[in-house]
Amino acid sequence: MRAIVIVLDSVGAGALPDAAVYGDSGANTLTHIQAAVPSTRLPNMNRLGLCRIEGLSALDPDRTAPPPVGTYGRLAERSAGKDTTTGHWELAGIVLDAPFPTFPGGFPGDFINRFSQAIGRKAIGNYPASGTAIIDELGERHMATGDVIVYTSADSVFQIAAHEDIIPIQEQYRINEAARKLLTGDLAVGRVIARPFIGVPGAFARTANRRDFSLQPTGETMLDRVYASGQAVTAVGKIEDIFAGRGISEAIHGKSNSENIDITLDCMQRVDNGLIFTNLVDFDMLYGHRRDAQGYANELMAFDARVPAILSAMRPDDTLIVTADHGCDPTHPGTDHTREYVPFLAVGRGAPSGAGLGTKDSFAYVSETVIQLLNA
Fold first, then answer.
1. CATH number of the domain encompassing residue 151
2. Going by DSSP bridges, is the β-strand pair 157-163/123-128 parallel, antiparallel, or unpaired?
3. Which of 149, 184, 213 is the last residue of a domain?
4. Number of structural domains, the chain?
5. Do the Cβ atoms of 296 and 287 come closer than 8 Å?
6. In sequence order, what E strands does the chain have?
7. Half-sphere exposure (CA, 13 Å, Cβ side) for 211?
8. Does one domain contain both 264 and 243?
9. Residue 150 structural domain
10. pLDDT tens-digit profile of 88-141?
11. E strand or H helix at 173
């Protein structure tokens, strides 16, 4: 028996009731992309029931979607927050009572001094910023001095940008590990993120060598349970980073959504049991944060075109679950994540065709489903 869980990073399904608290009233990643790019068509996900989820009927503008072949619904986030770590942890069974700390004014000066001493380099920046904007602003200075660029966002993150020709990638990872060790207590952000880039002033570009350094999960997850039951847990994309490597028997990092889908299909050919857990981050990283509705729509349609191959790779006892971890509405003001419901689509064993679930009160419905399916 296998469960294949694919997280479409940031593909939100409409504002949660408390979205106003987060400044996200009216956000709806999927519907607003459809409105901004009317040519968007997602026939294969609609066949799984996507357009039948409450609030998403606009995803079938031609009214041609057939009866769904799977089970569909939406999940509400119970944890406080709207970041990647919080969302994934709740999908895996951990509900957080308090959000991870954020630093809208930058990190305290004494911490920046301790961090600089630990890595033997000065830190420049230290304020909320767009990752592409801050390397355009400070990249030339970084190349001249070797100082690392640090910045944050509305999420609980400490991000470190450095040019791969100035600081080799393995040294960049060591610098991020040093920051992770220092960020404890009141400074325990959800993620430290390495943001390598290349190029020359005026033409910098981030590379695919990003890596996330997360906190250890604060409780037992579905990964822990499946692994402890003697079954395989295969992590694709940044899943290993989000769960700090815990409860994982094999981890594979692709450099794009397309590559991570290829890896998932390969795993479906050779892994005989357990959980295959995939994150597809390009929706969020390349299009949501950059407010690129057209690019986001193209990426959604590219994934939709791969759904038939994923379904064809399933075995009789498999269950496929497609969901998300938060929203990142590219039409919403700002560049941050949005507090949204996420879709839940399931097909295969234990997922009756045409079954509408309505709204479940936690992302942890995914972990409950997986643990039950895998007798874990």
1. 3.30.70.1250
2. unpaired
3. 213
4. 2
5. yes
6. 2-8, 71-75, 123-128, 148-152, 157-163, 191-200, 203-206, 211-214, 233-236, 250-252, 274-280, 318-323, 342-348, 356-360
7. 18
8. yes
9. 109-213
10. 999 999 999 888 999 999 999 999 999 999 999 999 999 999 899 999 999 999
11. helix 169-182
Got the DSSP string for 263-319? HHHHHHHH--SEEEEEEE-HIIIIIITTT-HHHHHHHHHHHHHHHHHHHHT--TTEE
Do 9 and 91 belong to one domain?
yes
- Judge whether 290 lies within some domain: yes
Residues 208 and 90 both lie in one domain: no
Amino acid at 78: R
Which pLDDT does position 154 carry in this prediction? 82
The predicted structure's pLDDT at residue 105: 95
User: Please, which residues have CB within 8 angstroms of residue 306's CB and are 6 or more apart in sequence?
Assistant: 258, 261
Counting beta carbons within 10 angstroms of the beta carbon of residue 326, is it exposed (0 to 12), middle (13 to 18) or buried (19 or more)? Answer: buried
Tokens 């504002």 belong to which residue?
15
Tell me the per-residue pLDDT of 297-321, one tens digit each, with 9 for 90 and over.
999 999 999 999 999 999 999 999 9
